[in-house]
Design brief:
By secondary structure, the chain is α/β, with parallel strands linked by helices. The protein has 8 helices and 10 strands. It has one domain: Carbamate kinase, CATH 3.40.1160.10. The structure holds uridine-5'-diphosphate. It catalyses: UMP + ATP = UDP + ADP.
Length: about 250
């Protein structure tokens, strides 16, 4: 797929990755801001309005818990990671509620069985939901410790045959140097997977980059802060930085 020089929405099936932090109001002690979740849901609804996009969503859990941080403070890593995966389920349920409030039909599928609150992740069932234009929220990460929800997004995108991964984050793309330290830092419109991996760019983890590279799935990294950005990204407007197999382009 040539992305995104081709016409807007040249993709049919997409995975949107939201970090857990995105659901928290900065400075608030509440882990989830219902107002922010509502805003995200309304933007997703607007993006889906034309009716031609199949969307899966992966939500992180960093607003509650990160396994690596707890492990650095002495907790067993695998146990800490299971706690992190359960955190993603809380975020997924909150997002499901808001999406339904906005009239978007959606299903939560959890990689850890939790029958009372979510379907269990079954690939073929998830594919069927997507094909019938139901949003699938993939909860509980991969279901395995030592992974991240970025990797979950890359994995689900690969197995669902998605055309693209959208990573909504707190920065508006990938820069050639730290824009907070260097006022002349330039943003890439396009960067190659190999560059991201060899330069150890922290915007997404290396496992996620590798998985998308191996399966030829571009990643669009964009800032979810400005209102309307999720809608713009999912509608195929040029936004943020596109990570692809092709060469790196500045500006
Ligand atoms: N996690 C895991 N396996 C997975 C996905 C997530 O063990 O497949 C755990 C891990 O501890 C991670 C936490 O869940 O720190 C929350 O996910 P993540 O840090 O990716 O959330 P985000 O930074 O996107 O909010």
């Amino acid at each position: 797929m040539s992305f995104p020089e081709s016409s807007p929405r040249s993709f049919k099936r997409a995975i949107l990755k939201l970090s857990g932090e995105a659901l928290r109001e900065p400075g608030s002690t509440d882990n989830i801001s219902p107002e922010i979740v509502e805003r995200i849901a309304s933007e997703v609804r607007d993006a889906l309005a034309p009716g031609d996009l199949e969307l899966g969503i992966v939500v992180g859990g960093g607003n509650f818990w990160r396994g690596a941080s707890a492990s650095a403070r002495g907790m067993d890593r695998a146990t800490a990671d299971y706690v992190g995966m359960l955190a993603t389920v809380m975020n997924s349920l909150a997002l499901q509620g808001s999406l339904e409030h906005h009239g978007v039909t959606c299903v939560v599928q959890s990689a850890i069985e939790m029958k009372n609150v979510a379907e269990t992740f079954i690939r073929r069932k998830a594919e069927r939901h997507l094909g019938e234009r139901r949003v699938v929220i993939f909860a509980a990460g991969t279901g395995s410790p030592f992974f991240s929800t970025d990797t979950t997004a890359a994995l689900r995108a690969s197995e669902m045959g998605a055309d693209v991964v959208f990573k909504a984050t707190m920065v508006d793309g990938v820069y050639d140097s730290d824009p907070k330290k260097n006022p002349d830092a330039k943003r890439y419109s396009r960067i190659g997977f190999q560059d991201c991996i060899s330069r150890q760019l922290k915007v997404m983890d290396a496992t996620a980059f590798s998985l998308c590279m191996d399966n030829n799935i571009p990643i669009v990294i964009f800032d979810l802060g400005p209102a309307g950005n999720i809608t713009k990204a999912l509608r195929g407007e040029q936004i943020g930085t596109v990570v692809t197999g092709t060469e790196t382009v500045l500006g």
